[in-house]
Design brief:
Length: 386
């Protein structure tokens, strides 16, 4: 590997744009973890070798003592800006967090998708995709809510289908605190819509009704249940603190379970019980937005640190913030991996030892012995700047 990488860098007569030296390259997608240098040019990874010290580059980054990983992928964020002020600006947080791919989880309806593309996805330094919410948030109070949501099915389905390069599927908040007594009706409409147009559903779970069994029954392979480690009445645990049988059955048939930390949906004790019962999340995400960037979420490295504190290894967490969510997105060859020819989306991370306070959504505090920190974020072959 060393000879091949060095030969490319010197034999092509082309200057590398970025050379990352002395780091430990970690790529969970192919089980690769070893000290190596990484060369970037033309928005791609063009060299991975033991020693590229003789390669010519415009910028050299010394990653000694650090991990060079695929850019992190956050499957649940809110970066669409609307009148509520829900959306956060992706690039400044990406610059300090290593997240090169953001997925907006339903901050906008079908009638705002054009604005999402024009003003959010296209101008960003990072890659931004989205789930469209099941219906626009402008229901006429004089119209039956179920009839209204059903009347939006065609527009929603056609919008996702017509924008598949950046739109992944449909999101719905399932819970009595979100959609009152209509949650189950709306979920059934979402199921019908996703079956008709052949794209996945992301379901937020919070407070019953409906019940966990009713929700899981309507989830299909490739769908995502987010907020899986919440402590609410609509969750994955039964009254004995064990993973509900309907949740296990859903996983067995291919339903995916995402952390989606957020302001109120991640609880240390719920996560401990689920992990102790052998139920490890498929993806780790932040559900980041302005109300939680100053805590309890802060950013992706903090969320990763929490999962490590709960007993997951760095490698296991890294898999769930790189290749696992990248496979769900499935829009760009090589996303979520760090290999020759893959997109030059790179995070340079460190693991620090010490005593670090961490807090969950219910403000329960723990002291972690390690934390993940982000040093450099590179997306599309360029440093991401705040």
């Amino acid at each position: 590997m060393a000879a091949a990488g060095a030969a490319w860098a010197q034999g092509q007569g082309t200057r590398l744009e970025i050379l990352i030296r002395n780091g430990t390259v970690c790529d969970p997608a192919r089980g690769f973890k070893r000290k190596a240098d990484v060369g970037i040019s033309g928005g791609r990874v063009v060299a991975i070798a033991d020693d590229l010290q003789r390669a010519d580059s415009r910028e050299t980054i010394d990653a000694k003592g650090l991990y060079v990983t695929p850019g992190l992928v956050d499957l649940h964020t809110h970066c669409y800006h609307d009148a509520t002020g829900l959306g956060t600006e992706a690039d400044p947080i990406a610059a300090r967090s290593g997240v090169t791919t953001w997925v907006d989880a339903g901050s906008f309806g079908w009638n705002q998708a054009r604005g999402f593309r024009r003003f959010i996805s296209e101008p960003a330094q990072v890659r931004i995709y989205g789930f469209v919410y099941l219906y626009p948030d402008n229901r006429n109070p004089d119209m039956d809510p179920v009839k209204y949501v059903r009347s939006m099915m065609r527009q929603t389905g056609e919008t996702v289908t017509g924008n598949r390069d950046i739109l992944l599927g449909v999101k719905l908040q399932v819970g009595s605190n979100m959609n009152g007594r209509y949650s189950l009706d709306f979920l059934k409409i979402a199921r019908e819509l996703c079956d008709t147009y052949k794209f996945p559903l992301m379901a937020h779970i919070s407070f019953a009704p409906p019940t966990t069994e009713q929700v899981m029954e309507l989830m299909r392979p490739g769908d995502i249940v987010t907020h899986c480690y919440n402590t609410h009445t609509l969750g994955i645990l039964d009254g004995n603190g064990k993973v509900h049988p309907s949740v296990r059955a859903a996983r067995e048939r291919g339903v995916l379970f995402d952390v989606g930390h957020g302001l109120g949906s991640f609880n240390f004790e719920a996560a401990r019980k689920a992990l102790a019962d052998g139920f490890v999340c498929d993806t780790v995400s932040t559900d980041i937005y302005p109300l939680n960037t100053a805590g309890p979420v802060f950013d992706m490295p903090t969320t990763m640190s929490k999962m490590m504190h709960l007993g997951m290894s760095f490698d296991d967490v890294l898999k769930r913030v790189t290749i696992a969510p990248a496979k769900i997105i499935n829009r760009l060859d090589g996303m979520g991996t760090l290999n020759l020819g893959s997109p030059a989306d790179v995070a340079i991370l460190g693991i620090e030892d010490g005593e670090f306070p961490l807090v969950d959504s219910q403000r329960n505090r723990v002291t972690a012995k390690q934390r993940v920190v982000s040093k450099v974020t590179i997306c599309k072959g360029r440093r991401v700047t705040a």
